[in-house]
Structure formats: structure tokens, C-alpha cells
Amino acid sequence: MASKDNHIPLFLIFSFLSLLQINSSMAQNVKGGYWFLGSGITASNINSTLFTHLFCAFADLDASTNEVVISSANAQSFAAFTGDVQQTNPSVKTLLSIGGGSSNANAFAAMASQSSSRQTFINSSIALARSNGFYGLDLDWEYPDTDEKMTNLGLLLEEWRTAVAAEAASSGKAALLLSAAVYYSPHYWSPADYPVAAMAASLDWINAMAYDFFGNWSSTTGPLAALYDPGNGISGDIGVRAWIQAGMPAGQIVLGFPFYGRAFTLANANNHGYFAPFTGTALSSDGAIVYNQITSYISQNSATTVYNSTVVSAYCYSGTTWISYDDTQTISTKVVYAKGKGLKGYFAWHVAGDDNWVLSQTASSSW
Ligand SMILES: *[C@@H]1O[C@H](CO)[C@@H](O)[C@H](O)[C@H]1NC(C)=O
Ligand SMILES: *[C@@H]1O[C@H](CO)[C@@H](O)[C@H](O)[C@H]1NC(C)=O
Ligand SMILES: *[C@@H]1O[C@H](CO)[C@@H](O)[C@H](O)[C@H]1NC(C)=O
Ligand SMILES: *[C@@H]1O[C@H](CO)[C@@H](O)[C@H](O)[C@H]1NC(C)=O
Fold first, then answer.
1. How does pLDDT run across 235-248, given as a tens digit for each residue?
2. 105-112 vs 115-131: helix axis angle to the nearest 10?
3. What is the structure's pLDDT at 16?
4. 309 lines ligand 3 (CB under 6 A)
5. What is the DSSP string of 248-274?
6. CATH architecture of 10-258+327-366
7. What's the mean pLDDT in 288-292?
8. In the chain, fewer beta carbons within 10 Å around the N or the C end?
9. Using a 6 Å cutoff on CB, does residue 104 contact ligand 1?
10. 81: CA distance to ligand 1 center in Å?
11. Would you kindly state where each structural domain of the chain is located, as residue ranges?
């Protein structure tokens, strides 16, 4: 009897181990990146060893049926995405991202406003994720801009979580991950506040888009993705602190940064700091230019580069062309910040913008 009692039954050890496994997967940090077809590289060319999670962008909301669909142009590469990126990193997790910056925000608002259309959206999203081999779903509704839409977003997320848990229980598979790409702050400018309690209870994490603080809609140049306030009250740190203040646990916040910059034409070549007047965008129609094109631009034009450590942002200029962007210094500082704040991780939009993986490598090794 006594000697038997000294042995812990095997089944207990196994249940303990599987509990540990669940805990460690729940606590897994996010080194994330978005990819889309036509971005410049194929999914199999992503150096997935540098990531824990890769987001495949974008599935669409069909406004007439309220179902989530993958366009025929994307169908083949999305179905192959998980297998492709797992070739070099079998443990990388993939999420199917729905919506995006150029999707129809009114369609999301209409879908979220009725219980029956929310159910259709939710059911179709789960079926689509499973049939295409994804580990999770990411909602990128840009943006719910009234309090009513925010309330409906909360209902959608709560029902989504319930459905994902029920599907996992009935299929015996691990529950799909649920994330959402959101404004950098819980206070959307329209103004409307995100339903933080429902988000914290329903989502594995949020991807806070802490970039696009300046662009062709602005009245002056300024840092695209400052970590600290350049003087206009907008920064990644302000957003992160506001999310935490509003009740989002730090451990569910993933900080986003850009693998692209925005280029402007200065009104005066000699006035090339922040808050300088510009006459229009440069180098592309909306001024967006990916990091590897920026590094080429700098070397081809011997552009002057400036790292502003106060706000944590980089810019370069040559003549009247001025570009704000993130480089290895800003990204390592942001990743160290994210880790120090106890955030869940970081993500980049978008992986094809990288230059021989230097930004992704810097981010990964800085965590
Ligand atoms: C991918 O990243 C790893 C880790 O930094 C590096 O060793 C490897 O050379 C990279 N592969 C490619 C193809 O760049
Ligand atoms: C969604 O799936 C659930 C569970 O399978 C089912 O009960 C419900 O009728 C479905 N709803 C719609 C709108 O398809
Ligand atoms: C960095 O930006 C801040 C905010 O605009 C500004 O006050 C400061 O002078 C800048 N520092 C440098 C070294 O340019
Ligand atoms: C900014 O760029 C976009 C994309 O090219 C364009 O549709 C929009 O009209 C531009 N806005 C301004 C204010 O120039």
C-alpha cells in the first residue's frame, strides 16, 4: 500500500502535462506578420522561422449573403498558405484575416446589427478556416465608427467565441484562435469607444495598428508610427496605455508596426523636419512605399537619414522628397517596449516590405 501510494498514477501525469501544454499555448507570444497575394513574395518565400503567427489577408464579407468568402483570385494560394509557410517552420500558426482597409465598412456594420446575419458570418468563417487549414480567424473591420456599431462588434465577438468553443468541443480539435486588428487606441476618433470588456473576454488578442499617424490626409509631414508623442497627442505608447486603462489586459495586446513608409513632397527642401508643409505625396499615388524600396531609394539618392530617438521614428530626405518609416532601430526599440510592458507581442504590416528579413530578424531577436 505505502509503496503504491508513492507512485503518481500515470493518467494524472498525462493530464498534468496536457494542462501545461494548454497553458503554454495560451501564453504563447506573438511574433506576427501579415501577407497578401500580390505583395511581392509568395507564401513559400516568407522566412517563417522568424514568426510565430502569420496572417493571410484578406477574406471578404459578402454583403448580400453575410458569409465570409475567399475570392477566386485568392482561393488557390490561401488554401495552400498554411502548408507553404509550415515548410520552413512547422509550428507557425496561421490566421485567416477578414476585411482590411479597403473593405466595405458598411457591410460589416449591417452584418453585425442582426443576430441572424452575425450567425451566418460566424458559421461561414469557422467553416472556411477549417476547410482551408487555418489555425484561427482575424477580424479587420476598419472601422466601427459609432457607439451602436461598437456595441454590435461586442455582440459579434461574444457570439463568435461561443461558436468557436462549441465547434472545438464537437470536432475535438483545438479551438480556433480569434484576433482582431483594431485602431491604435480604444477611442476611435469619430468618436466611438471599442467594447473593451467584450473584446477582452472573447478574443485571444488584439492587433493594435499603431501606424498611419500621418499620410496624404495630413496637413504636414510627421512620424508615420511614432512610439512616443511627437507633440500632436498621437503615438503607439498613448494607444497602448489607453487600451490598458480601458481594461484590455496587457497580455492580450499585440503592437503593430509598419514595414513601409509614407513619402511626401516638401514645400521647401530646407524645411525637412516633422510638421513641415508638403505639397503632395511622392513616389506613389498615396505615398506608401515599402521598406526595401526605401533602402534602395536611400542608397540611389544618397538620402540623409535621421533617427529621432525621442519619438522613436526614422525619416530620410533628398531634395524635396521626405519619407517617414520604421527601420531596425525603431523596431528593436518598439519590441523591447512591447516586452517591457508585458504585451503579448508584435506584428508587422506587411512581411513582403522587409529587406532580406532584416526587420523581421531584428524584431524576433529583440523580443
Ligand atoms: C531566415 O531567418 C533565419 C533566422 O534569422 C536565418 O538563419 C535564415 O538564413 C533566413 N533565411 C533566409 C532564406 O533568409
Ligand atoms: C450556425 O451553426 C449552428 C451550429 O451548427 C446552427 O445551430 C445554426 O443554425 C447555424 N446558423 C446559421 C445561420 O447557419
Ligand atoms: C524629435 O522629434 C521631437 C518631436 O517633434 C522634436 O521635439 C525633437 O527636436 C526631435 N529630435 C531630433 C534630434 O530631431
Ligand atoms: C490619398 O491617396 C489615396 C490613394 O491614392 C487617394 O484615393 C486619396 O484621394 C488621397 N487623398 C488626398 C487627400 O490626397
1. 999 999 999 999 99
2. 110
3. 43
4. no
5. --GGGEEEEEESEEEEEEESSTT--ST
6. Alpha-Beta Barrel (3.20)
7. 98
8. N
9. no
10. 19
11. 10-258+327-366
